[in-house]
Amino acid sequence: MNSSASSPARIRWVGAAVLLVFALTVALFTWQEGSVLLLSLAAVTPAAVATMFAARWLDRKNRPGWASTVIALVWGAGGAVLLATWGGSWLAEAVVYIDAQGTLRERIPSSWVLTPLVEETAKAIGVLLVILAVGRSRFGGVLGGAMVGALVGVGFGWFEDAAAIATDIAANDLGYGIGTWIVRTLTSPTHAAFTIWTGAGIGLAMTVRRRWARPLVAISGFAIACIAHGTVNHANLVGDSPMASFITAVATAAGWVLLTVAIAVAARLWLTRRGSRIALDSPTVSQPRSDSII
């Protein structure tokens, strides 16, 4: 059986597994947070949907079908959330120790080192899952990878934002939760702006001819995502007051989103025009692309 014939079957199997994990994630978090989590998910959905369509715009020629899009989104909101929650908790406990003065300390900072590593790794698995489901030969290069990475980030951010709102409502009150919703809505694309770099690195690596360079290219994209994530998280720790730290963190996240959007739009326009020029200069009749994402 060839790759194109087996892709629909892979998509069905991977999609079913990812949906099952997502259902488990929703059930576990609803059990902990209550029905307010479901309401919070609904509240952050409009911002997530807008970011999703922006991500799908990135690669017009290799835009994934809705099955692949759902796999990316649902892994981000399900499997990546579970791995990040459990893995992050385990690592956070593993690096904690009590010094000679009886003070609790961390060998490695969890908020801006471990958390970005764990979360970006969990989301990177989602990018690889989409490649597995679609088929490596049909993957769309740097723009296709960036698009899938952004979609996984959208799913992760959607669920994380809802969980944060639900937690704040439970710990404080509805007014506090509404404030969190406003902030989370404004910074909704942040996780997409992290993982887009992981996806772009993986997508670009798959087009590199030298095999030894492929891991380096993929790891470089992942490293950018982790560094950006860590920088935004670290911004929460600076400032002379909680409000100053909050403003710094929001400004850092917004700045990274704007920078990433500018680079992504420029890359999309340049590569699209470059592809159009190549097609116009070609003396032969162009054939349908075999690497388009289903």
Largest sheet properties:
2 strands, antiparallel
Order of adjacent strands in the largest pleated sheet: 1-2
Number of helices: 10
Shape: globular
Question: How do the helices and strands follow one another from N- to C-terminus?
Answer: HHHHEEHHHHHH
Helix content: over 70%
From the helix content, strand content and strand pairing, which structural class follows? mainly alpha
Characterise the protein shown here.
This is Protease PrsW. GO terms for molecular function: peptidase activity. It is a single chain. This protein has 294 residues and is an all-alpha fold. The chain has one domain (9-278). Helix content is 78%, strand content 2%. The chain has ten helices and two strands. It has helices at 3-33, 36-57, 66-77, 79-94, 110-134, 141-171, 174-186, 190-205, 213-234, 242-281, and strands spanning 96-98, 104-106. Strands 1-2 form a two-stranded antiparallel sheet. Helix 1 runs parallel beside helix 3 (66-77), helix 1 runs antiparallel to helix 5 and helix 6 (141-171) runs antiparallel to helix 8.
Helix and strand arrangement:
Elements: H1 3-33, H2 36-57, H3 66-77, H4 79-94, E1 96-98, E2 104-106, H5 110-134, H6 141-171, H7 174-186, H8 190-205, H9 213-234, H10 242-281
Antiparallel strand pairs: 1-2
Helix pairs in contact: 1-3, 1-5, 2-6, 2-7, 3-5, 3-6, 4-5, 5-6, 5-8, 5-9, 6-7, 6-8, 8-9, 8-10, 9-10
Protein name: Protease PrsW
GO molecular function: peptidase activity
Pfam families: PrsW-protease (PF13367)
